[in-house]
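Incident log entry.

Two folding requests arrived from the same account within the same minute. Monitoring flagged them as a possible duplicate submission, but the sequences differ. Recording both here for audit purposes.

Request one:
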Amino acid sequence: MSDVARYFKQTFEDYQVLVKVNADGLTGTELIIHPDGKVEKTEMEFDEEIFEDLEVDGFKASSPLEFNLHLSKAGK
């Protein structure tokens, strides 16, 4: 696997979820962007099927820039 983290996003009815999967493939960060602009951050531990799970759940590749812009708003 590459040494670069991978980023994914999915838009649901009234919120958006962005996921960063670290290069180790088993850790990362999830951001939930609520309609009011609040950003909820959760550190995650994944299993070996994380990429397949994200694909099945409809997540698409995203950019590190978008993820980090939202991350900068987390907890504010």
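Request two (distinct sequence, not a duplicate):
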Amino acid sequence: MAPLVATLALLIVVFVHANIPRFTPAGPKRLVAHAALLLVGLGFGVVSAMLTGPAAPPWAVIACGMGVVHVPALCLLVIKRIRRSKRS
């Protein structure tokens, strides 16, 4: 079950980072968006992996942590796509 959930989480991460350029102009804003999501996701995943112990493989917990952090960005990007928003 852990590989399935980790795969779904990583698909969320890939989707978000692939769609950020569609709605964010090139430059510091885009770089900050990518870096903040990756660093916070990695930090959340590592801390979660340290707290879970042997309940799940650490790589799966880290991947799930990354996915959880990217879910709000996924929701925003989906809303922007439905509204056909321009870059902001």
